[in-house]
Task: structure prediction
Amino acid sequence: MRDTAPVLTGVGTSNFGKQDYSAEELVVQAVTEALEAAHVAATDLDAIYLGTVFSHPGTAHRALRAAGITGVPIVTVENACASGTLAMHLGAESVRQGVHETVLAVGVEKMTNWIKGPIPPDPYDIDALSGLILPGLYAMSASRYQHLYGVTPEDLAWISVKNHRNAIDNPRAQYRGEYTIDEVLESKPIADPLTILQCSPISDGAGAAVIQARGVTSADTSRVEILASVLESGEWWPSLDRADDRVWNAELIARTTERVLRESQVSVDEVDVVEVHDAFTIGEIITIEAMGLCPTGEGAAFSREGHTSRGGRLPVNPSGGLLSRGHPLGATGLAQLAELYWQLTGQAGQRQVPGAQTALLETMGGSVSGLSGHGCVVAALRTL
Amino acid sequence: MRDTAPVLTGVGTSNFGKQDYSAEELVVQAVTEALEAAHVAATDLDAIYLGTVFSHPGTAHRALRAAGITGVPIVTVENACASGTLAMHLGAESVRQGVHETVLAVGVEKMTNWIKGPIPPDPYDIDALSGLILPGLYAMSASRYQHLYGVTPEDLAWISVKNHRNAIDNPRAQYRGEYTIDEVLESKPIADPLTILQCSPISDGAGAAVIQARGVTSADTSRVEILASVLESGEWWPSLDRADDRVWNAELIARTTERVLRESQVSVDEVDVVEVHDAFTIGEIITIEAMGLCPTGEGAAFSREGHTSRGGRLPVNPSGGLLSRGHPLGATGLAQLAELYWQLTGQAGQRQVPGAQTALLETMGGSVSGLSGHGCVVAALRTL
Result:
């Protein structure tokens, strides 16, 4: 019987940032690189899963046609910031179930031509219209977290310093600059205690990955197995009467990660590198705690002690993360996946985490108003 | 081993048409009816697949929360007019593959508050901006079809007369009126030869269906098996140098249907009732031909002879179709599915096709500009 374990055989991305390319052109860049890396032709594809949030209907088909792909079934999905990660998940599961042998996962977002500042809220979302948009929600989480654990503004700012430093070695990143803690804290206030250098930017970009059944892959290509991937959805937030629900979506991240670890039989001690959803600095701290990578309440100290830096024992967001690589919503999950593929196959260049073999990926799809619903996707990856 | 054949155990819809309800409220109406019909609780659901085209991110989560559903993974998909049908397809396949036991497929669109006239084209779609929007594309198909087969304007108009007549017995339909062929032809011109009564309207609405693995269903509920469902994507159109590519997407519809018939082992002779994508009158004629329900070039005569009328030997769109029930994009596939479920379980009231046991469903997802890409979904259904 064919081995249907889903395996990454190639990835590609555009550059990230404000740029003149259309969504279609960005997809062509990412898809062309991924297909070439995987030694796969457009005619080999059984299906395409494409994640995007704000693209108009037809963008997927138009973009893929421009990449030389027609006549292949296309499933377009939306899951807020985790749209691309959901595309990866559905593609990987279709391979695992034996439905497809070779699929392409794609993510794309073109934002800089119409969004200035925060993403505009849904006109039907009364929570968002009352001010509970994502910067505000993350800021509330940050304040609560600081209160509970005695964490300082400098601790929060450190995440930004670290991720911007990582991005210096990422030629595709949107922001590549060395910042001090003071510079982060003195940058423009967005939602107290978060300053603009603690918020991920509005970006344009695309990412793509070829996923194939292990049985059809060749050892001649660089291969990374998707050991497990899981989509879970969350409850409403905030439930301030629940002491354990103190920060945005910690429970959901924990629940999703636990399932991935169980299904993949990976222990957190084995993890060499992670890419997580640092849409805001506080997000990275809460997420690595919720994933069980360090004890609850110790994420800030764990980071500031250097354990999550590139030379540390568990590098987090070596790509620069959303904060510095950029955050083109639908593309982000594929950008995270591409970074981990490069890390796990020794192709990460100056950013390489030596000997990385096992990785976790996490993306949080909170909608434009963070109250509207959440779809978290987590995956475990290992060098084959 | 558990029988994982996907089975419909309940459906629900809102009314269709211009109405004051929000997308969220429409979803609540459809989902509540579907869960009650299936005797399924929100806590029984393993996953939700929701199709929509123009809803803002978060709508799915907000709507489902309003229906009492939180903490269930939600996959939101977009496939133009076949978004809801794609949600059904993905949900059914997740059950067939044994990934889930009980899923909810939902479709919704809220259009009347912001669209007047044709759906506005994507600002990046140069084909659409040059005028090749859907009414124009269907009109070109109609002209070509008339030229090839000597079909008259009256033949086209008959489809509108038939479907509006069917809708008189559908209390949820948007337009329920008796029209003559002359009245159809004398209605406002939209894109020659199509008049407004030959174009589906802008609508608000939602639909929902509970899909369960046969092994967990009870014979006490009214059950319809989804024998097969298929998503296929098309090539670019038009290729006027190909004589067989004379009308919009006929090749794609034929290819998708052939796969469904093969996988379901259903013969067209066994089909008792169909719901197809009559976004425009010409669409119904081309579609029933492409599906093999009548010979190529004879669809208009076949219809006008009464064979596709409710008392005929192969009733097409007994619900009134998109032309009369309405066409809230993301909801349409679920509305078609609901009609066929009611027909196949003897619950279609005044619209009942006596003894209907086997049905086909077809939805064409052409994007706002019909050139941008196409995702056709076809399914075969049978009373269990």
